């Protein structure tokens, strides 16, 4: 019996917010996605023209795009798209990871970074939608406490950011700090 050993090349890239000048690299990333990855990301098959226009819209409509970048290539991306029509600050999130680096923890790291970015922008809720067979996305959403529901062949998830303790709470000064500081300033 032959033993199969799976080896992966080391991940040497960085996770960072993509700049407007990264638009061509983001579009190239989307175009490199294999059929299954495209289906997972966009809930169906997409043609190249759609992907190019989508990348352009994302950058021009103010989406936050965070990428895993190796050298001059974006190999994975996480997107935060505002849902201005919602009653409370809400964004929809989406992820794409090229096949060669899937199942290596990149999606989780991108998710973590995107949640931190969403909090920094003041969003209270995050929404995620995927097809019912995208087990990787559903597992990732559950890891971040998404409440999942299933409707018409899609999985919809909501992550409540409002219920979690704010990092900024640690930075609030005690109520009497201002009075003490003012008193010292006057006395000095």
UniProtKB/TrEMBL annotation:
Database matches in Pfam families: Acetyltransf_1 (PF00583)
Molecular function terms from GO: acyltransferase activity, transferring groups other than amino-acyl groups
SUPFAM superfamilies according to UniProt: Acyl-CoA N-acyltransferases (Nat) (SSF55729)
Domain N-acetyltransferase positions: 13-170
InterPro entries: Acyl_CoA_acyltransferase, GNAT_dom
Coiled coil regions, renumbered to chain: none
PROSITE patterns, per database record: GNAT (PS51186)
Protein name as annotated: GNAT family N-acetyltransferase
């Amino acid at each position: 019996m032959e033993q199969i050993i799976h080896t992966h090349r080391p991940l040497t890239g960085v996770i960072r917010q993509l700049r407007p000048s990264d638009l061509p690299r983001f579009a190239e990333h989307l175009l490199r996605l294999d059929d299954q990855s495209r289906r997972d990301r966009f809930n169906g098959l997409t043609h190249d023209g759609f992907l190019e226009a989508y990348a352009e819209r994302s950058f021009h409509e103010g989406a936050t795009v965070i990428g895993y970048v190796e050298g001059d290539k974006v190999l994975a991306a996480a997107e935060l798209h505002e849902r201005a029509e919602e009653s409370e600050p809400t964004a929809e999130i989406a992820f794409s990871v090229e096949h060669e680096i899937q199942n290596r923890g990149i999606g989780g790291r991108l998710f973590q970074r995107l949640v931190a970015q969403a909090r920094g922008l003041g969003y209270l809720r995050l929404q995620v939608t995927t097809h019912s067979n995208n087990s990787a996305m559903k597992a990732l959403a559950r890891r971040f406490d998404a409440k999942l529901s299933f409707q018409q062949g899609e999985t919809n998830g909501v992550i409540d950011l409002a219920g979690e303790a704010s990092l900024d709470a640690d930075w609030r000064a005690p109520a009497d700090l201002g009075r003490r500081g003012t008193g010292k300033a006057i006395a000095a």
